[in-house]
Description:
With 198 residues, the protein is mainly beta. The chain has two domains: 7-63, no CATH class; 75-195, no CATH class. The chain has one helix at 66-77, and strands at 7-9, 15-17, 41-42, 45-47, 54-56, 59-61, 87-92, 110-112, 123-124, 130-133, 137-144, 153-161, 173-182, 188-195. It is elongated. The chain starts with 6 loop residues before the first strand and ends with a strand.
Amino acid sequence: MFKPGEIIRTHDGKSHRATRSGRFPRSMAKKPGEMPRIRGFVRGALVDCLTGEERVGDWHENVITTYGHGMVIKNFVGLAGSSYASFWGLGYQTEAQSSNFSTMSKIDSTEWATASTGGAARATVSAGSQTLSGTWTLSQSFQYVSTAISNAVTVNCVAQYGHSSVGSGTAMSLATFASSTKGTTQALNITYNWVFST
């Protein structure tokens, strides 16, 4: 993206010079422990219509608006499809939540389908069950009604997938909680918050 020698002007008023192709200058690098940021850069070029000579300007950092932040979150987490985290797996995880969760691809023991009579469907969290809170938080909620998982099952984990069938796809997130048995006549309400820190 950036070429050596190009000037990048950030919206804090500072100027930075690129030293390596496709890399941010060291002065713009993320600090240790700093959360990832979404950044965009734009530049223009004046072209002489007679000679074709092009005068390329410096790069300028954009500012993502509150609406833009919301769209980024909704488009990653919030839309049903093969690449979005809009299908929930509910099940039993034998291993307690730990740092190695980041390398896990699924609930490690049992995932329950939403039809206990042998179905294979995961819950689909629709756009109507999602709300934005502030600039960087998306809240999703779903109610497993008593007939969705009618057998008495032990649950302690919810995972989010981009695929609608139990056993398919790789988990995008996993969260464990105190295990409990969902009885045959009980509903289970779950709320899942994605918080994107700036």
